[in-house]
Amino acid sequence: MKKLYKGIHKFQGSYFKKEKVFFKRLSKKQTPEVLFITCSDSRIDPNLVTQSSPGELFIVRNVGNIIPPYDAIKDKNSVAAAIEFAVLMLKVTDIIVCGHSNCGAMEALYKDERELTNMPHLKDWLKLAAPVKDIVLKYYSMIQSEARQRITEEENVLCQLHNIQTYPFVQEALNAGVLHLHGWYYNIGTGRIYYYNSSEDVFELISEQSMKGDK
Ligand SMILES: [Zn+2]
After folding, report:
1. Are 116 and 17 found together in one domain?
2. Distance CA 188, CA 145 (A)
């Protein structure tokens, strides 16, 4: 904890001081254009990897960057609440679902359920990603475990992109052309980020070249 306390002092004494005007403006309201949904994994920093500032990304994080399908939402669900707020109130124009390499949640899908008996909430939460495992076992049965991990992480992004489209107000915004969905995959070891190219059905490296013409 000491390190964090020191960090607070450092932030207030240097970064905040230099950016006082920015934070003053920010204190009035938030106007993010992007809803960024990613894993709780400590190695992911959405603002760092996109070099964006406070106020630019409305962020939802949970174990495995999972979005419960609309009909699976139980009485209290923080993911659904955040999506409602981002789409209906903040009127974000883009939603990014970002998976990542070495994701413990995706690894856990293949573990014996008994290993999770002392973590009933986690076990229950991961059941939402069970269709991902089913897809991988069905269509990629011959692959080695290392490749299987990456394919599972990528298929999970696609599954969650599918799930978010089950929300009626998301579907409405998509149909109206005021909202766009993006599937990303972040490789922690290389710093590279890939986006899902739906017309080719592949994840492609995001480079300055590939993003030409995008705003
Ligand atoms: Zn993860």
Report:
1. no
2. 18
Domain hosting 143: range is 32-205
Cα of 169 to ligand 1 centre, how many Å?
Answer: 27
d(CA 204, CA 91): 28
Q: How far apart are CA 103 and CA 133, in angstroms?
A: 14
- Span from the CA of 39 to the centroid of ligand 1 (angstroms): 5
CB 62 within 8 A of CB 40: yes
Whole-number Å distance between alpha carbons of 63 and 27? 30
21 and 38 together in one domain = no
Co-location of 43 and 98 in the same domain: yes
pLDDT in tens, 68-77: 999 988 788 9
Residues 113 and 149 in one domain: yes
| pLDDT digits 0-9 by tens, 158-194 | 999 999 999 999 999 999 999 999 999 999 999 999 9
How far does residue 107's CA lie from ligand 1's centre (Å)? 9
Do 43 and 15 fall within a single domain?
no
Spatial distance between the Cα atoms of 133 and 110, rounded to a whole number of angstroms = 8
| Ligand 1 centroid from CA 28, angstroms | 33
* Residue 23 sits in the same domain as residue 36: no
Q: Report if residue 110 sits inside a domain.
A: yes
